[in-house]
User: Fold this.
Amino acid sequence: MKKRKFRPKKNYEKEKTFNGNTSNNEPAQQIKIHKKPPEQPVEKIIYPKFICSKCGKPIEELNSAIGDKETGNPVHFECVIEFLKKAESLKEKEEIIYIGNGNFAIAFFEVPQNRKNFKITKLIPWEEKGKDYSWKADIANLASKV
Ligand SMILES: [Zn+2]
Assistant:
């Protein structure tokens, strides 16, 4: 290698070019380098925009949205509660509560100040189990990419 240093520049360049040409015999590796890398997963999560069919306003936090009973489209959680308040004729000390798994209920609070002590007087199944809430799957997929 030391020898090379003392060669005239011209020769050195020639040698370089020559080496490049001979490398045609084993081009596979070099070509790979110039190939486009595989598509990068999108880092920024862009949640699809959904409009609440109950109030007509956009749903900002889809994670807290719930599927509409008829259409399956996302609606505001609060909008469902408001809807149920009107749909169910609540008696005194009764409230609409969410009990999980897409189900609401009418709860009777004997002492309204005590939120832990209540009786469920009526179950209100809301989200249908077999229903295809595709927007939820979309969100789950997006979330799993984080
Ligand atoms: Zn709404």
The chain has five helices and five strands. The chain has a mean pLDDT of 78.
